[in-house]
Amino acid sequence: MGAEQQVHALRGISVRIKHNEYVAIMGPSGSGKSTLMNLIGCLDTPTQGKYWLNSQLVSELDDDQLARIRNKEIGFVFQTFNLLARATSLHNVELPLIYNGTPTQERLERAKKALSDVGLDGRMHHKPNELSGGQRQRVAIARALVNSPSIILADEPTGNLDSKTGVEIMALFDSLHAKGNTIVLVTHEPDIAEYAHRVVHIRDGQIFSDEPSKRFR
What we know:
35% of the residues lie in helices and 17% in strands. The chain has seven helices and eight strands. The strands form two sheets. The chain has a six-stranded mixed beta sheet with strand order 4-5-6-1-7-8. Strands 2-3 form a two-stranded antiparallel sheet. Helix 3 (89-99) crosses helix 4 and helix 5 (133-145) runs parallel beside helix 6 (163-178). This is ABC transporter ATP-binding protein. One of its GO terms (molecular function) is ATP binding.
């Protein structure tokens, strides 16, 4: 707040993520990883530098253009699920398609397929309070998948889950990556980061290390 209180959350970071990569971004609180996630997800724009996504210079787009990019190119999965409490699983997954004007029948078919892809065929008409934590996260993942985004951006996706359910959700991310999805995972948990193929450590707004995860060395 104020010119004299500026904090450089990220300082001269340069990173490239290729199609179908599975990357974990790690760092302690205040390291800049949340800011980097917001930039990748087009929730924020850099004050300097450039961000290219699928050959488009998104760092120079206005708010309306960024909203369209978020809807089309980014599938978000949050720690707190961010589901509408009074809506069924099917309606929660439909939401991105409603916003971009997809016709009703196509919308329903795509939402049902996304839920089926995450193993929730039998829970399409249940509301969030009728689902377990793991099932809620699967609904959130289905919603992220429904637009066939360029990037699935997962922020602490197992943070509100018990360890057994967390393993199941990470196995689901493994299968999504195997199908060709690009996944960027933001976490502070080393064991969760090891599911990725590449781990980027951020410290004090800069990249401290960028290397293959232990599983893939």
